[in-house]
Amino acid sequence: MLSWRTLFRRSLIIGIGSLLITSASAEERKKEKTRNWFGGFEVRSLQTAVPDDTAFRIDDPSFGVEVEQSIPFDRGRHTGYRAFFGFENPDGRGVRFRFQNLNTHASSHRSLAAGETFLPFGGSTGFDPAFPIAGPDRMVASSSVDSFAFDAEAFVKKRFDNIEATFFAGVRYGILEQSQWALLSDAGISASMEQDFRGWGPTLGAEVRVPFGDGRWAFYGGTRASYLTGDSHSNGLLLDGQTLTALDGFRRPDRNRSVLVQEANLGLELDTAKLRYRLGYEIENWNNSGFSPDGSGNTSFSGLAFSVIFK
Question: Which of 230, 217, 231, 228 is nearest to 262 (CA)?
Fold first, then answer.
């Protein structure tokens, strides 16, 4: 039979051991919980390309036949932003949310020569201009394209030897707004046209990360596709600037438009203790987003992106 002193010593040892194990487990859970949350911010410098069926065109008969030319815009590069946050479970599964936007603006200055004709709402918009304006004249035009997207998605990470792959799927809400405006100063007439699309739909894709060297550096790349369905509206107005009289105009609702958004990126990553830095090239293409009645034509953005990721 054990003495009370022996029982006391054994109970004390068991109690201290249990306390240490419990403390270690709590500390480990705390560390795991801290590692599961992540977020990041991205700055993008992108150039915009729009469909050739722009809202306004110029009929130039100097080639011997009637040739409609779109108005050239010097679009340059514009800054867009993306932010994201989420959590990852120890098994590699998680949820994340992304917000991104881009606002662009471009201008054009052009002389309308004798024999040339300005066609408001011309080109592939599906409307015959009732008031073509003949040159000579001086024209100032502007164009803007704005995009926004919000993603909510689930993901899972898998390892294949040295490659870390992430597969994701979820839902996206997207907006694409386009507008063009032109003023013919001698005639005193201005023309404007706007189109906006707003839709929901599924989004899915994959990302890969391949470390090299001492493990701090890695190549990364990814692709994403989103199929959005929603409302699209177009309207145009031709205005006499002297009398403020509407000379021509239209409004066209289209509630059955579907837009496929395709994205891809590729770049280099530096991994530190608490942060990851990324610099890469990306492209984003909105199909079926033109001014024409069937939406034919693509609007795309491409350029460099710099990211900071908090682990």
Answer: 228
* Structural tokens at position 54: 């722009």
Position 6 in a domain: no
pLDDT band at 6 (very low <50, low <70, confident <90, very high): low
Q: Could you tell me if 74 and 106 are in contact, meaning their C-beta atoms sit under 8 angstroms apart?
A: yes
Query: Which pLDDT belongs to residue 33?
Result: 54
Q: What is the CATH number of the domain that holds 283?
A: 2.40.128
Expressed as residue numbers, the domain containing 54 is: 37-310
Domain membership flag for residue 198: yes
Is residue 9 within a helix (H) or strand (E), and if so which, with residue range?
helix 4-36
Residue 194 is assigned to a structural domain of this protein: yes
* pLDDT tens digits along 114-137: 877 787 765 545 555 556 777 788
Residue 132 CB partners (closer than 8 Å, separation 6+): 59, 117, 118, 119, 120, 122
* 283: Cα separation from own chain's centroid: 9
Band the pLDDT of 193: cuts 50, 70, 90.
confident
Per-residue pLDDT tens over the stretch 239-255: 887 787 887 777 776 66
25 domain-assigned: no
The tally of domains found in the chain comes to: 1
What is the Cα gyration radius of the chain?
29
Residue 295 burial class via C-beta count within 10 angstroms: exposed 0-12, middle 13-18, buried 19 and up: buried
